[in-house]
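Incident review: delayed structure delivery

Summary: a single-chain prediction request sat in the queue longer than the usual turnaround. Root cause was a stuck worker, restarted by the on-call engineer. No data loss occurred. The affected request and its eventual output are reproduced below so the record is complete for anyone auditing the incident later.

Affected input:
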Amino acid sequence: MSLTQWIRFVGMAVLVAACAQPERQAQTPPSPPPPLAQARQSETERDLVAARHELVRDQVVASAKESTQQRRAPMAHAIAPVPMPVMVPPVQERETYAAFDDAGVRRVVETPVSTFSIDVDTGAYSNVRRWLRNGRMPPQDAVRVEEFINYFEYAYAPPRDRSTPFATHVEIAPTPWNAKTHLLRIGLQGWRPQGELPPANLVFLVDVSGSMHSADKLPLVQSALKLLVQEMSARDRISLVVYAGHSGVILEPTPGDQKAKIIAAIDGLNAGGSTAGAAGIELAYAMAQQGFIENGINRVLLATDGDFNVGVTDFEQLKDLVERKRASGIALSTLGFGTGNYNEQLMEQLADVGNGNYSYIDDLAEGRRVLVHARASTLQTIAKDVKIQVEFNPAVVAEYRLIGYENRALAREDFANDKVDAGEIGAGHSVTALYEIALVGSGGEKIEPLRYGDEKPAGKADEIAHLQLRYKAPDGDTSKLIERPIRRGEITRALAASSEDFRFAAAVAGFGQLLRGGRYTGAWTWTDVLALAREARGADAEGWRGEFVQLVQLAQSLQPAAAEQLGHAGEICALGSGCD
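Output delivered after worker restart:
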């Protein structure tokens, strides 16, 4: 027996004797011991008391260890009932996306003209990136292919001078997913400013409602806006307006070189309350008008998850509000943040009617890309109401299909109507549109000919199509026309002989179409996307193309193992159930 065990044994004996002593005392009162015996008894009791103290200390230590290990486990002899496990309800997806169908194939003899507004938004790409990084395939309606394509920069030559705000570029080569058709790429490259930008009057309109209380919302807004503040100078003005249950001015127009004051105002924001977005928009425009700079940049930057739930919440009323305010010469751009309740439909369309652009910021690197790297194209407009119209030659082209731009389609008569709003191009911005075309007799046609249609149209045999563009100066009301023919001689016979930019844009377009279900991509696979993107990656100074390759790999790994996918409205549908 070890010393510790012996002490515990003696201690237990003492405890038993102590418990029995009162009963013995009641029966026979003890006689006083002789002095020597009393001294010996006192010494023995002191030893036993010390042993008992050690026993109690050991029990306390053991009890503490057991309590740490089983803090939440009910004891066998406890009187209280065993607590039931807390049932956590599943996360309810409340993200909102505008439903749309893919643009279909058109026969040139029936519909020779294609008209649409340009789009410089990129938010759909970074939003889908967030879905894939979180291990989930995105809803189909979150994928707008043109925003995928236009997320990337291409080596288009800029115009020679500012008198023409953008240069046009055309390239044609075989389609990667269909050997019997061709891709027609139309590229616009905006004028790149030299030196400093014009002075900017910026109003940061920040949602500080309770829905913004998470790390990927208000804290990320604050970090991203502070990156932009560092780029401002004394010529610029920055205001800060917030809204929750009520809206308010946190910072009136302040010179951009007073960075400590501006950053302190941003750092002081806290989330809480409901969301009265319309009142905030009204106040932000009033503050922008107060700091208005003639011949400068005047813009409201709305940073929110789009979850407006107080005051004016009707979608069309909010759009009408912003549309009325744009006549003041103040643009509105939207910066989307967050997950779960994100209203992407509102963010994208408010930017469209506000003569601004829409970006989704999923991390600080994207905040830097939008607000620092692409600051000129984000803030400075060089052309507004830009429209594209392509008239295909039925003698050469049998069918065409515009890839993306579904929510940018315009009626043919809208092209020359200067009252019809269209998209804006920022300084240095590039815009790309892709058509898949089937040449006459190529065998790539998808539509059966009409019985009584004109199958022998006349036309210039060397022209594929005629390209027209209309645009207005940033402060103008009358559009100007640019036009040029697209000729057979511009066709590159082999895809491998086309430019790296062409092939990479084709890979991105194919990826977006696969995410939307691959209705027109035939047997093309994720592996094919990867192969094309990798060999067309090029220099990739910023690493964005390499990141794209990683996203394709994520989508490829998620797709085969997925037991469900999200349909048009974000509802969950079993694979093979017909949900499209």
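Verification: The first helix runs from residue 3 to 27.
Action items: add queue-age alerting; document worker restart procedure.
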